[in-house]
Amino acid sequence: MDVHPDKLDITITFAQSLDGKLAGPDGAQIALSCSESMQITHRLRSTNNAILVGANTAINDNPQLNTRLLPTEEQRNPQPVVLDTNLRLPPGCKLVQNFVAGKGLQPWLLTPGSDDLDWHHRRRVLENAGARIMIYNPNSTSHVDSIPSILSTLSFNGVSSLMVEGGPSVIQSFFTAHNKYGSIIDRIIITVAPMFVGEDGVGYNLPRSDGKPAFIHKDSFLAGKDAIMVLEPTSA
Ligand SMILES: NC(=O)c1ccc[n+]([C@@H]2O[C@H](COP(=O)([O-])OP(=O)(O)OC[C@H]3O[C@@H](n4cnc5c(N)ncnc54)[C@H](OP(=O)(O)O)[C@@H]3O)[C@@H](O)[C@H]2O)c1
Questions:
Q1: Does the Cβ of 29 fall within 6 Å of ligand 1?
Q2: 18 is in which domain, residue-wise?
Q3: pLDDT tens figures, 24-66
Q4: CA 136 to CA 10: how far, in whole Å?
Q5: Low-confidence stretches of the chain (pLDDT beneath 70)
Q6: What CATH number is attached to the domain comprising 120?
Q7: Residue 158 burial (C-beta neighbours within 10 Å; 0-12, 13-18, 19+)
Q8: How far apart are CA 140 and CA 145, in angstroms?
Q9: Which GO terms describe its biological process (predicted)?
């Protein structure tokens, strides 16, 4: 299944160390961004209508995925989306709690579904807690393969601009997923923090380029101690 890139504007954004790591050993959360670059991330969130993270990020970091660092009149929260095949998200997480308290949008958990009875039990618990479970086409054979179905589901449900915030596994999937139009990514915004994590940190790899750059520089600027770089696919 192909998703035409014009249907969904996709921004990949993450913070990395100088040695290209997004997380610590075994995917543990590490503080990379300074307060100035965090504020830019929140502004970027306010300009997209959905924000997507992987299940591990949602579980490890317990993020709110909102725009609370902006002045009240500029806060506009994107639709939170978690890729959670096995419905591992704890029902007591901040995303669900914020929704129940009227402080956030209802979190969408995207999954290909399952025949497993425990999975159906977790579905009921999460739905009763307040999450919305959304099933995408289950015929994909890998995480990368599932990206077009995930994008179609989001597009069908009214999402036109998507910010993908991590973690490394999800970013890797989006880098690798291509359709007949080329890269599905419209831009990458990377916050580079002036620190090293070390080889036991978790990074990402780009697909083979055969000598041609897949993304080219569009802009770069400083935010506090961090450097922010904007890249676009060469075909853009
Ligand atoms: N530096 C940054 O900007 C940044 C940003 C975000 C997170 N992080 C860090 O990254 C760490 C977690 O990273 P991670 O790589 O372990 O996990 P992740 O990318 O947050 O989540 C990966 C999990 O998402 C699920 N998933 C479902 N569909 C997927 C798809 N199409 N592609 C990839 N994954 C899919 C899989 O679990 P199931 O199969 O169970 O669904 C997979 O194991 C966190 O601790 C966080 O601190 C850093």
A1: yes
A2: 5-233
A3: 999 999 999 999 999 999 999 999 999 999 999 999 999 999 9
A4: 18
A5: 1-6, 179-181, 236
A6: 3.40.430.10
A7: exposed
A8: 5
A9: riboflavin biosynthetic process
